[in-house]
Fold:
Amino acid sequence: MLVSVVGRSMEPTLRPGHRVLARRVPLAQVRSGDVVVVVAPAEMTAAGPDRPDGRRDLLIKRAYAVPGEPVPVDRVPLLRDRPERVVPEGQLVVLGDNPPFSHDSRECGYIPEKDVVGVVIRPRLRAG
Structure:
């Protein structure tokens, strides 16, 4: 699938207007450090959770921690009070490369497996 980069959350890796090619994969194939495409949590959807067409926005972020890895409480304080010490099965922690401009796990916590769309395999395709 081809996805357009909107916003500055992944700068300098990706810039607004870049288009990236993503391959649909299950969460089990995602590794820490991969750039991933995920469905935006409802509270982060630009048109809000009640978008008339029922669709939700896609986000391009970096997988920071995958199931079985330590919960990165230093980077994601929202997860600090959770009882688990490792990322649970079926969950993913994502962060933008440009934190001041990124909406990510720091605001919504874990991304559920059902919202993982794929892994970016060609990160530098330009628009046009």
